[in-house]
Amino acid sequence: GAVVSQHPSRVICKSGTSVKIECRSLDFQATTMFWYRQFPKQSLMLMATSNEGSKATYEQGVEKDKFLINHASLTLSTLTVTSAHPEDSSFYICSARSFGRGAFFGQGTRLTVV
Amino acid sequence: DAKTTQPPSMDCAEGRAANLPCNHSTISGNEYVYWYRQIHSQGPQYIIHGLKNNETNEMASLIITEDRKSSTLILPHATLRDTAVYYCIVDMDSNYQLIWGAGTKLIIKP
Fold first, then answer.
1. What's the pLDDT tens digit per position in B54-83?
2. Half-sphere exposure of residue B42, counting CA atoms within 13 Å on the CB side?
3. How far apart are CA B39 and CA A20, in angstroms?
4. What DSSP assignment string belongs to chain A?
5. B68/B66 Cα distance (integer angstroms)
6. Averaged confidence pLDDT in chain B
7. B52: helix, coil or strand?
8. Cβ contacts of residue B40 below 8 Å, gap of 6+?
9. With contacts defined as CB-CB under 8 Å, which chain A residues touch B98?
10. Cα torsion at A24, A25, A30, A34 (round to 10°)?
11. The dihedral formed by the CA atoms of A9, A13, A19 and A21, expressed in degrees to the nearest 10
């Protein structure tokens, strides 16, 4: 079964509202999780690294005030897209690494801002 | 930048073996070769990984050359559900993010 669970899988929201995406590691503790964004026909682009108990590390060009990341426990990280706009519509994916087993990914969240 | 090069696309007939090549000529001694695949609108799926020896699991086989500068992922009996983008990544077994290249789009044809 899946070792990283991401929810919701699809969400449609109105422009200006906020959306929260959850990512859970089910059978291992993840001190670090990664949030990616993927546009159609493109590879994954890292947005930020989520660190349990501390602030996330954002990639260049990613607005930390817009994409709020919280990693309050060893099994849960959340990404909140604040004041969403249509250009934020994308496929968001979380990931966590498990030593000796590689990286595992959530199912992805298709966000559509209307 | 990605440390691997892969062909952008490949076709394979259903039921035949699909052999996906990957070049990683700058791989270092402590880096593993990982293979993932991504089916449309889903998160990437782990397939297999290896360091030096060839590896096999229920999904695929991984053949790594003796000099470790290239590898081949083998799907022994491809089905239509194996149509996906396959990513070859080299990385240490660490807690850092993986560097993603463009991958190979594999199309399985009936």
1. 999 999 999 999 999 999 999 999 999 999
2. 16
3. 24
4. --SEEEE-SEEEE-TT--EEEEEEESSS--SEEEEEEE-TTS--EEEEEEETTS--EEPTT--TTTEEEEEEETTEEEEEE-S--GGG-EEEEEEEEETTTEEEE---EEEEE-
5. 5
6. 92
7. coil
8. B84
9. 95, 103
10. -60
11. 0
pLDDT of residue B1: 65
Q: Which residue is listed with tokens 């695949």? A: B37
Run means of pLDDT, 10 residues per run, chain A, 114 residues = 85 97 90 90 89 88 94 91 96 86 88 96
Cα A64 to Cα A53: distance, rounded to the nearest angstrom:
17
Mutation target to probe the B interface, by most B beta carbons within 10 A, among A44, A59, A69, A111 is A44
More confident residue, B14 or A30: B14
- Per-residue tokens: A47: 């947005």
Encoded amino acid at B103, one letter: G
Residue count of chain A = 114
Which residues of chain B neighbour A46 with C-beta distances below 8 Å? 97
Q: How far is A74 from chain B (nearest CA, A)?
A: 14
